[in-house]
Amino acid sequence: MTTHAIIVAAGKGHRAGGDIPKQYRSVGGQALLRHAVERLQAHPGIDDVTIVINPDDRALYDAAMHGLTLPEPVTGGATRQQSVLNGLEALATSPPTIILVHDAARAFLLATLIDDLLAALSDPANDGAVPALPVVDSLRRAGSHFEAAVDRDGLFRVQTPQAFRFPALLAAHRAAAPGATDELAIAMAAGLRVAVTRGDECAFKVTEPQDFAKAEAMTSPALSSRAASGFDVHRFGPGDHVWLCGVQIPHSHGLIGHSDADAGLHALTDALLGTIAAGDIGDHFPPSDPQWRGAASDTFLAHAATLVHAAGGIIDHADVTLICERPKIGPHRAAMRARIAAILGIDVARVSVKATTTELLGFTGRSEGLAAQAMASVRLPA
Known about the structure:
By secondary structure, the protein is α/β, with parallel strands linked by helices. The chain has twelve helices and 19 strands.
């Protein structure tokens, strides 16, 4: 018997606010989606995890999942229902026995919740199992004023993951009418027998902006703040573009370096490494190693961010100052901030990119090269 999990992460999550879809926003130092993935991967009863994404968010996905071993993500559809069906169809050629369908916004599911789902499906009388919490608050209908009471007996708040025998759920999805809200609705419409298992408040759905504070509190032990700086210089040479802060900028010259010579990302990589006393970029990516010749510097920055996360750190802020007479940085600043935010998996509001000149003094003033300095601040377990 094999058990596979699908995480639906193709939505935009507008109600949660922020500049990027909520599943990629940082909570506890890593993307909300990554929390869900790691908890599913860690469960001994789950063999693999597939994620359904919006292809427009591929860069955010790659940054959030850096270092994890996962199948190629599946392209989502216009609705949640279509996204789940796409994920199921992707597995249909080598189908698992059991499928769990989970929402990326429920990042903090407990192992015991998954245990209960799998135990319910060990009973052949059940086609599926869904976790739910009984409604404990008083319920009333209301318009502008309160009206009649609603009997809460037998009412439940439904959660995910929702577990089913794979052939039954695939057939139900293929036959489903449009507009279903979750797998439970599709399964019931198909006449499947679905058991109720215990839900858990930890598996709450991050929906509104204030939910992120609750999520952060669940991931943050006692932390202390650290800040570190980085500095890098590269000379101009032959070429028709430069890479700065992960953005390609047309220019009359290129920058000379073993990698792509992105001074902005190099300085920021050193700053992040400094916050955890992990040496500098050359220790991790030696220029003597031919595999890094011409390498994209977002690899270096993502690696530094992974080390910070592995140390239990939360990246609070990244600040880069580019020092050059040319090229002009202003027209590209927004794209640079967005690219750094995507690599680090943090909100763009936590990223600053600035530019200055040296008033024609020194090697930058003579346009012989450019420099970058960076600061990074993180929170780490005390």
